[in-house]
Model the fold of this input.
Amino acid sequence: MRARDVMSDGVMSVSADATLLDAAKLLANCRVSALPVVNETGLMLGIVSEADLVRPQEPAAASPWRQRKVVDVMTHDVVFAAEDTPLVELGRLMSVHRIKRLPIVRDGSVVGIVSRIDLLRALITLENAYSSSLHFDRDRQLRLEIVAACRGRSWATAQRVDIVVSHGVVHLWGVAPSNMVRKAYEVATENVPGVKKVEMHMHVVPPAAVRIGL
Done:
């Protein structure tokens, strides 16, 4: 398995010129501890974390929290990986650099995020898969079919969508703007042939809260 197989799609990001207050609200509302920072064309410039927002600033550089910009406090030297990076390399990078997540980048733009929990989910899936290669191949195909069933739909507006399939049981994570959208993902997944059961772990966060700072 590689990064593309386990990464969370629909990554939330924050613009470099957003205020620290905007970034703080976005982190809190989306229940994440860090966000990629992008420019106006979507290219990743860095990453901003909870630690960056609460780190003491030099008095000479200080200004009101709601006026300071993300670009002033973000981490510029970001460790990232490509979509075809093997899981073992992702784990090594996280261990060596002592980080909890890795942005997955294509042509300078963030296309996903792999966190330590994503690696754990993948290990669980692989453990089951080793006992039956047929299950593993079918589960991988099911994931692709579920992605295809949801992608491009008018209701497919959830963020940070993550799909893990194990022996036909589908686990869906993400942030949906409404219960209706959450239900649409559930129904679309249930209708994919071969899906035995759908476990929903998707949170509902109102759009106004999710998009603060973007």
